[in-house]
Design a protein that fits this description.
There is one protein chain. This protein is α/β, with parallel strands linked by helices. β9 and β10 form a beta hairpin. α2 packs parallel to α3, α4 runs parallel beside α6 and α13 crosses α15. 36% of the residues are buried.
Length: 449
């Protein structure tokens, strides 16, 4: 039996949640605002808190900030208004988890049980991160927009990783938004006031890579008429984003490994090392384990990079985001009111396979906004190729038994999740919205273990 604090201004929801928790044998405390909840936290021996994001006066994020100085109690955030920004911020401030309303009873009970187990195992849990200056959702188009559970798991990981200097490796197909994730990590970190420097490793010739990254002294080579500090020193005190690191030459990979280990560089032609204070975020669309086996990528660098791996799902696996993102891009393009999609245009977007992912969708919306003279975007303005054929591997008899069709879809989704996460079953389970135990049962059921 545990003592659970509920902070929510919706009396009906608070009452029903309290009743459910009491049925489970817990003692329940209730508060309808942040100040009242913090008073309960100071005066009662609370084991866990369930806190709504939107509260009268100070919101649930303020509760998290202030609660960290009172008690290391695990806090579960609830909201009906989830966004990339508030999910990342809640996790960065130390929330145990961030769930969306309406929340399923089983999901809430499972999360609460995990929170209570962790609190029992680690009574001296570290306090939440200090608020970073500028850790606000941007309004320049670089915010992360999604309503899918797979992306919500990404947002949570960004929030948990943002407060540290741990190296992050972002994996995903071209156009899925890997640089946006890197910028979100920087924006929500203690380095937010420092520089964010992005380098596209695939766009730099191999012979210029080391000079570009590490800099050179005057006279280091023919044509080096001036000193160059290099991208690592440009990013000092901030974040260096190494995009498409899978395309980096092997010779440079060895030097990157040393930088990650020693936090120092040697500019070309220099005799002394230079210390650097940077956080490294790397990204690639390549299958790095396959590149390691083929000898194109160093195995030791692969292990060094994936301290915190993040997998971004392709747009075709989160079709619920297509119209949300399309409308978001149209708002960014301006207009009073912004242009909108016709019903047939919306159906076209949902039928497309989006091989270029979010980048392709954004380009399509820009094109459509230019070509449409009125306020409504029609099919002819979008200019997409014909809808792609159904995904390969799904040989389903649509007139047969439903159980067999559902089983084939489940198997295909599990296979794709495992492939996208390089066989990491814990990450695959998160992508699929399953517990690890559920995934293991499915793997056995479909002979995939």
């Amino acid at each position: 039996m545990a003592k659970i604090l509920i902070v929510d201004d919706d009396a009906a929801f608070r009452g029903s949640l309290a009743e459910m928790l009491q049925d489970l044998g817990h003692v329940v405390l209730q508060a309808e605002a942040t100040d009242a909840g913090l008073h309960r936290l100071r005066t009662e021996n609370v084991d866990a808190a369930i806190v709504d994001l939107r509260l009268p006066g100070e919101d649930g994020l303020a509760f998290l900030r202030r609660a960290a100085g009172i008690s290391p109690v695990p806090c579960i955030m609830l909201t009906a208004y989830a966004s990339g920004g508030n999910t990342i911020e809640a996790m960065r401030l130390g929330a145990f988890d961030h769930l969306t309303k309406p929340v399923a009873r089983a999901a809430l009970v499972e999360t609460l049980e995990r929170a209570l187990r962790r609190d029992a195992d680690t009574p001296d849990r570290p306090q939440a991160a200090v608020a970073a200056p500028g850790a606000r959702e941007p309004v320049d188009g670089s915010e992360l927009v999604s309503s899918s559970e797979a992306m919500r798991q990404v947002f949570k990981r960004i929030g948990m990783a943002a407060g540290s200097d741990a190296t992050v490796l972002v994996l995903g197909e071209t156009g899925t938004g890997k640089e946006l994730v890197a910028r979100a990590l920087h924006r929500n970190s203690g380095r937010a006031a420092g520089p964010f420097v992005a380098v596209n490793c695939a766009a730099i010739p191999a012979e210029l890579m080391e000079s570009e990254l590490f800099g050179h002294v005057k006279g280091a080579f023919t044509g080096a008429v001036h000193e160059r500090i290099g991208r690592f020193r440009e990013a000092d005190g901030g974040t260096l984003f190494l995009d498409e690191i899978g395309d980096m030459p092997l010779s440079t990979q060895a030097k990157i490994l040393r930088v990650l280990q020693e936090r120092e560089i040697t500019p070309l032609g220099a005799s002394r090392v230079q210390p650097v204070d940077v956080r490294i975020v790397a990204a690639t669309h390549l299958d790095l384990p396959a590149a390691v086996k083929a000898g194109r990528f160093r195995e030791d660098l692969w292990y060094r990079l994936q301290v915190v791996p993040l997998w971004l799902p392709p747009l075709r696996e989160r079709l619920g985001d297509v119209l949300l993102l399309a409308e978001h891009f149209l708002r960014l393009l301006g207009g009073d009111p912004p242009k909108r999609l016709s019903a047939t245009a919306a159906r076209l977007l949902l039928a497309h396979s989006w091989p270029g992912n979010v980048r392709e969708l954004r380009n399509a919306m820009e094109r459509a906004a230019i070509l449409s003279h009125g306020s409504v975007i029609e099919v002819e303005h979008i200019g997409l190729q014909a809808a792609a054929a159904p995904a390969p591997g799904l040989d389903i008899d649509w007139d047969g038994p439903m159980a067999l069709a559902v089983a084939r879809v489940e198997r295909e989704m599990i296979v794709r999740a495992l492939a996208a996460t390089a066989g990491n079953r814990a990450e695959a389970a998160r992508r699929l919205g399953l517990s690890r135990q559920q995934l293991y049962r499915k793997l056995a059921e479909f002979d995939l273990d």
